[in-house]
Structure formats: structure tokens, C-alpha cells
Specification:
4-stranded mixed sheet, 85 residues, globular, 31% strand, 4 strands, alpha+beta, single chain
Length: 85
Amino acid sequence: ILLDVDNGPDPLAHDHNASLYGPAGLRAAHRALRPGGVHGVWSYSDAGAFSKVLERAGFRASVHGVANKGRDRGRSHAIWLGVRK
């Protein structure tokens, strides 16, 4: 599962997207995956606490910085990978 919605978990551009990144949304993603399946989340910025949220939902979490080559050149985006345990 790969999400590129809103600005990522924080900051949100649209409050109604918050459920995707909260406990209920992450539990739904967890249920949809087999063990070893990956839930990826793109974010405009590194919302560092999101790794802990993924872990509480049953994922092994890692975050990877990605350089922006577009308009905000030099700014680093983040991609979280949550692997279902």
C-alpha cells in the first residue's frame, strides 16, 4: 500500500485526511496486508513522531529522506515504510 495524500501525516492540508494517519486508518492498512507486506507513506516533511504511530499499529517502521528536485529544491521529503510484523 502506498499513500501520497495531502502533505503527509503532519502538517495536514485537509483535516479530513487525518484518519488515514491515525490509529484506525493504520489498523485498516495493517489488516489489509499479509505479514511482511509494506505500507508506504509519503510526506512533505519529516513528522518524526509518525514512526512511533506506525509501530503502535503493529508495523516495523523506518523513515527515508528523499531530496526534492522540483520547486523546493534542496528540501528533503520523507517516505515512511511500515512492514507488517
